[in-house]
Every structure is written in structure tokens, then in C-alpha cells.
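Q: Please design a sequence for this.
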């Protein structure tokens, strides 16, 4: 445990925040220092898709009305996996997932309505759901080229940078599910066998500094969301940060052990369905 020894952790972090104290359902216990925040969102070209999308049901309506213009990366791609989990959250309810055991049969039973949904939209996906983009980069390129009208990201603040650089259409909009979008914190840690633990702590402390965190929010650099509690940042320093917006309600990740189970079920129930 080392985070309590870091001045910037003590000065600028909300130590009571659940997102700071857990990492994919595992207690951090001071062994990981918060480095950045992420939030999963679906993105649409509002010039092509005008209807309001606020949940999986309205998303399905938009997908059916625009056949071949929606898809998601094949799991275990990070964003593709997050999309499937966000669908599960919306249909099943996050509160019904928090105490799930790491048991494939139990998980399958609970998430089956979401797998049914993914199979219902499958015929209307790009390439009729017979194949999926291998990576989020491939999906982003398809979106940029107008081949599809939707993409997705775990870094919503990067969208503005991609619009400014003309990689994305000016009509690009972020969709927020009314029940919530998956969010998490990414962390830095020090391996037990690190030869220079003191140096690592100095570096991690710097990476949690106001200047480093502010530069990271700049979409020209990364567009990552800061982990600092802005209520603890001095007023004269707040202007250093690019605007960081949380897009609606956020929900924490499931326990890490459930993720590969969900990905296996998706492969069997959706990807291989009909093959």
C-alpha cells in the first residue's frame, strides 16, 4: 500500500469515492493510484439518425430503421465487450448483476434477455451480423467513411478532438442511456519486484499532479477524464483543464471475473448463433 504516501493523492483525490476505491469490483486497498477515468458511450451521426436514443429499445428502433448501419466490435475487443455489458445493464438492471457468482450457468440465466436482444438486432447489423469489426479502430474507420452511422468509445472527451480534426462528422453526437453508462477508473501501480519503488512513487505522484492531469484532459493530447476532485483544485488552476463532461448517469464495472464469462456466453449465444 503506497497511495497514502503521495502528496497529490492526499491533496486532490476524493478518497471516499467508490470509483477510486474499487477496480472492476476489487478493493484497491492503497495498492493502485488513480490515473484517469473512462465512460462508455455510443456515438451516432445525427445527420443520418435523427431519432432520440435513450435506451436499448430506442436503439433497436434506430438500428431497424437504418439496416446495415450499426455494428460493434467482436468480443473480446474492449469497447465491444463494454457495449455488450451496457446492453446487459440496460435490459437486466445493474442492481441484478452486482452479486452474481462467477458461475457460467448462473450468469447465462440472468443475462439471457440481453443475449436475446443482441440476436434480435443481429439481422439488421452491418453485413447482417454475419461478421463483426475485429477492433474499435476498424469500426471508427467505418464510421469516418460513412459506412456505418454509429461507433462507440470508452473515452467520450476524445470525440470533440475527432470532430475538430474532421475525422468525425460535425453531426456526431453522444448517446447517453437513461439507466446509466458503464464507467471506471484506470490506475497505476508498482510491481512487487520493482527495483526503484521510490522513483516509481515520484513518477506516479507527478502523474496525479494538477499540471499532468490538466494536460491529459486536452483532446489534442488524449482527452482523458481527470481523477482529481475539482472541488479540491485551487480556483486559479481550474482553467488549465479542458472541459470534462460526464454524459448522464454512470455505473461501475462488474467484478472482473464476470467479464470473460460474459464474453464466452456472447460467443456461443450470438456470434456462433446460426453458424
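A: Design:
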Amino acid at each position: 500500500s503506497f497511495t497514502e504516501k503521495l502528496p497529490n493523492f492526499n491533496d486532490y483525490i476524493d478518497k471516499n469515492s467508490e470509483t477510486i476505491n474499487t477496480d472492476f469490483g476489487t478493493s484497491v486497498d492503497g495498492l493502485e493510484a488513480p490515473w484517469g477515468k473512462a465512460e462508455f458511450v455510443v456515438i451516432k451521426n445525427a445527420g443520418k439518425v435523427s431519432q432520440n436514443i435513450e435506451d436499448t429499445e430506442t436503439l433497436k428502433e434506430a438500428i431497424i430503421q437504418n439496416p446495415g448501419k450499426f455494428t460493434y466490435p467482436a468480443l473480446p475487443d474492449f469497447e465491444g465487450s463494454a457495449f455488450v455489458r451496457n446492453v446487459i445493464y440496460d435490459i437486466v438492471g445493474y442492481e441484478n448483476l452486482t452479486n452474481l457468482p462467477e458461475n457460467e450457468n448462473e450468469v447465462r440465466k440472468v443475462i439471457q434477455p440481453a443475449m436475446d436482444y443482441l440476436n434480435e438486432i443481429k439481422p439488421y447489423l452491418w453485413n447482417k451480423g454475419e461478421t463483426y469489426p475485429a477492433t474499435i479502430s476498424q469500426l471508427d474507420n467505418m464510421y469516418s467513411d460513412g459506412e456505418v452511422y454509429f461507433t462507440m468509445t470508452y473515452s467520450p472527451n476524445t470525440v470533440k478532438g475527432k470532430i475538430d480534426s474532421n475525422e468525425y462528422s460535425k453531426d456526431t453526437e453522444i448517446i447517453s442511456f437513461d439507466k446509466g453508462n458503464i464507467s471506471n477508473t484506470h490506475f497505476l501501480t508498482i510491481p512487487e519486484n520493482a527495483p526503484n519503488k521510490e522513483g516509481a512513487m515520484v513518477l506516479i505522484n507527478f502523474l496525479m499532479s494538477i499540471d499532468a492531469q490538466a494536460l491529459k484532459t486536452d483532446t489534442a493530447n488524449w482527452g482523458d477524464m481527470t481523477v482529481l476532485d475539482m472541488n479540491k483544485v485551487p480556483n486559479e488552476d481550474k482553467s488549465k483543464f479542458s472541459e470534462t463532461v460526464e454524459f448522464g448517469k454512470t455505473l461501475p464495472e462488474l467484478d472482473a471475473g464476470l467479464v470473460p464469462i460474459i464474453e464466452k456466453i456472447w460467443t456461443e449465444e450470438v456470434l456462433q448463433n446460426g453458424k
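Q: Thanks. Anything notable?
A: The chain has a mean pLDDT of 94. The longest strand covers residues 181-188.
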